[in-house]
Amino acid sequence: MSDNATTDKVANPHETIRVLRQELEETNSGLIALTLELEQRVDARTAELQEAYAEPQKTNSESRQLTLKLEDRVTQRTEEIRRLNRALRTISECDQAIVRVQEEPELVKTVCRILVEEGGYCLAWVGYAEQDEAKTVRPVGRAGFQQGYLETVNITWADAERGRGPTGTAIRTGQPCIQRHTSEDPDFAPWRNEALQRGYASSIALPLVRDGKPFGALTVCAREVDAFDKEELRLLSDLADDLAFGSETIRARVERKRAEAALQQQAALFDQTYDAVFVWDLHGPITFWNLGAERLYGIPREEALGRACQDLLHTTPPGGVEAFLQALERDGRWEGELEHSRRDGRRIIVETRIVLIRDAEGARVLETNRDITERKQAQEALARRGEELERSNADLEQFAYVASHDLKEPLRAVISFVQLLQRRYQGKLDAQADEFIAHVVDGALRMQKLIDDLLAFSRVGIRGGEFQTVECEKALHAALQNLAVAIQESGTVVAAEALPTVQVDVAQLVLLFQNLIGNALKFDRAQPPRICVSAQRHGAYWQLSVRDNGIGIEPRNFDRIFGVFQRLHTRQEYPGTGIGLAICKTIVERHGGKIWVESEPGKGTTFHFTLPVRHHASEHRPKTHLGG
């Protein structure tokens, strides 16, 4: 039986049964023909005998010798016919069992039983080749007189002493192996005594082959020496092929049932998900459609099955159908977004995952879709809103810059004339006039300061410079030089621990240090102020800290102080416009960091801010004393 025939039978179990029945009928026909042929041979020999009796020339002695010889030949032929009929009957019943039996262990045992009961053999057993290190042969079915024989044989299919007997040789070589004389065969020495005690005079082993590779052997033992002639070998080889095929058919059937059960279980699981899950042949129709697909597309399962995806969902993949299918065959999977149509005509956008599955049934596609229409619409709306906000922010920044810049000129004129009025007429008018003039001058100066701070705040966003590699210590020195007078007048001591090298907008880093240290100088106490600048690395960020021993901040005001024009004290208590910390927050966020405060009233304040570690950032520099 060829491998191709085996494959075809496994692929179609119904065709398999039909073919087996046909082979069984052909075998029975062959049995009848062979029986007739043997009967004709016996008749011919009988005619020869009669002719011998009729010859007057022969003596009575010669006639008796010829008679005995012919009787022996008739007896021999009769025995051959009997054995052949027995073998044919055995093969016929085994073939019927192969068609009828549904379980592999039962099939093996049934074939062995028929060989013993109908074939007249003393032992029949089947062993499977294990893929272990010792290449063990494991008995899986037996029948006949054995009295523990198979438990003691310890057969292997390796090329070793216990693998050179009939069974091991048949499995190893893939060819039938006959052991004709148990007492004389040297390769049978390891099992001779046990076999002779049980009456096994000869044996034959026939390989069981699947996909061109032996996976076991059918071994038959007989009580007669040299019990297996050429014709019996041929018949038993056919039986072994049929047994291997039957075993493979049963396994395929069991595997198919297991696969079908698994598919049904998976289908039930797929019905539990809200995603649309369906299966379609690579170049054919939809073969599976879950409840999620019914809900998403509004198309019932019976309407979807058998339809092509492109026609049912009115979709065109990127690059066209042919290019898409070629890419799927090449890569085995595809992920992306597609536009589909529901049954009611509404177009939806789905997030798609497609996997190509290849098996014995061909190439199939498992497709999983999730409706992302609302998410896409929200993303598009958010993107439009973001663009609008970006334009609005740019317009506001530009407006703040232009407004503050344009206000400076008329305000400068107002301040100049008011100060001129104050110099010329102070003391020449009444006291109330002097007070009014002083208020005007103070208000104009505060307005000028407010405009300067507003201009600085607007420049952070629209007039920022390029990032450069700079040592934080140098930026801190520049900030301290700008604050040198205030530091000297207050007697403040400023110290810096080791500071890193970072990539920043240098001017903005100077302004950041200047505002934070200026804030500490402004809100000092009677005792000598002390300010410390330090840095620590936390993963991908440097955390820099500016700590003072000033008046501190109430925790409820931590978030408020970073807003524009937010003041916690009156101008009489502490000067300022309330923009400095807002500028600090904008600078830090522009650099990809964040800023926060830790404080306790009466015990000082620490401002922390982070800056990303850049590729050119270095380790800390030594601790330095900077001023005071």
What does this structure look like?
The chain is of the alpha+beta class and 628 residues long. It contains 18 helices and 18 strands. The protein has helices at 3-11, 13-54, 60-100, 104-117, 149-153, 166-173, 192-197, 230-270, 291-297, 301-304, 309-313, 321-331, 373-425, 431-462, 472-482, 484-490, 506-522, 580-590; strands at 123-129, 137-144, 177-179, 202-210, 213-222, 276-281, 286-289, 333-341, 347-359, 362-371, 468-471, 493-496, 501-504, 530-538, 541-548, 595-599, 605-612, 624-627. The strands form four sheets. A six-stranded mixed sheet has the order 16-17-15-14-12-18. A hairpin with a 2-residue loop joins strand 14 and strand 15 (541-548). The protein is elongated, with a radius of gyration of 51 Å. It starts with a helix and ends with a strand.
Topology:
Elements: H1 3-11, H2 13-54, H3 60-100, H4 104-117, E1 123-129, E2 137-144, H5 149-153, H6 166-173, E3 177-179, H7 192-197, E4 202-210, E5 213-222, H8 230-270, E6 276-281, E7 286-289, H9 291-297, H10 301-304, H11 309-313, H12 321-331, E8 333-341, E9 347-359, E10 362-371, H13 373-425, H14 431-462, E11 468-471, H15 472-482, H16 484-490, E12 493-496, E13 501-504, H17 506-522, E14 530-538, E15 541-548, H18 580-590, E16 595-599, E17 605-612, E18 624-627
Parallel strand pairs: 12-14
Antiparallel strand pairs: 1-2, 1-5, 3-4, 4-5, 6-7, 6-10, 8-9, 9-10, 11-13, 12-18, 14-15, 15-17, 16-17
